[in-house]
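Need residues for this backbone.
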């Protein structure tokens, strides 16, 4: 199957929870997935890895701080999906952030709207917002997602560096195109000859100049 773009929330049908948990590689992981799905938590789409079934969507679960933020891999067949949801808007996730980081997030979300796109969040902050459990620590990053072909992308990237000096959380994240090809924003700004592109199929090095041309 054609994989979903990474970071998308994958909701599992209630009658498929046991089968999805059974795709885990060990019983402890299966129990954790079973419990979290019973609470109504979604999984998150991840890149395909060796051993993943061709007819299933690779997915994962991140457990909260109390359980070591352990990451668990599983798979979901399209027939087992109740729905797919875009990563949450940054302005929504901002509500779970520490006050100073929250203010920065609201400013960045407003800037993105001005530039014609919706800034989104993934990673620990998104999991904390989604589940109500604690994921963030003082050392956590705030992972942001922006469209690679946004007309105002250059201005957005300039502002990220400026806003980070005021944020207690490091601003990390990716720029992503509609196929799911994504590059870390810091790496993109550093402008090396080649950049690491992450996609639903895995990761690969791509000449930055060629990618910049494709994203024009």
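Answer:
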């Amino acid at each position: 199957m054609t994989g979903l773009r990474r970071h998308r929330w994958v909701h599992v049908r209630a009658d498929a929870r046991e089968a999805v948990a059974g795709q885990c590689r060990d019983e402890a992981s299966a129990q954790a997935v079973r419990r979290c799905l019973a609470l109504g938590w979604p999984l998150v789409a991840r890149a395909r890895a060796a051993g993943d079934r061709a007819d299933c969507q690779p997915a994962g679960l991140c457990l909260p701080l109390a359980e070591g933020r352990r990451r668990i891999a599983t798979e979901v067949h399209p027939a087992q999906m109740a729905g797919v949801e875009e990563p949450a808007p940054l302005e929504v996730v901002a509500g779970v952030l520490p006050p100073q980081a929250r203010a920065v997030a609201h400013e960045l979300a407003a800037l993105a709207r001005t530039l014609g796109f919706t800034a989104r969040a993934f990673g620990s902050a998104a999991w904390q917002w989604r589940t109500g459990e604690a994921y963030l620590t003082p050392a956590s990053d705030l992972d942001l997602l922006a469209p690679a072909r946004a007309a105002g992308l250059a201005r957005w990237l300039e502002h990220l560096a400026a806003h980070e000096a005021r944020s207690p959380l490091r601003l990390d994240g990716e720029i992503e195109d509609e196929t799911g090809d994504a590059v870390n924003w810091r790496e993109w700004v550093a402008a090396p000859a080649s950049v690491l592109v992450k996609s639903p199929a895995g990761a690969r090095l791509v000449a930055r100049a060629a990618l910049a041309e494709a994203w024009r």
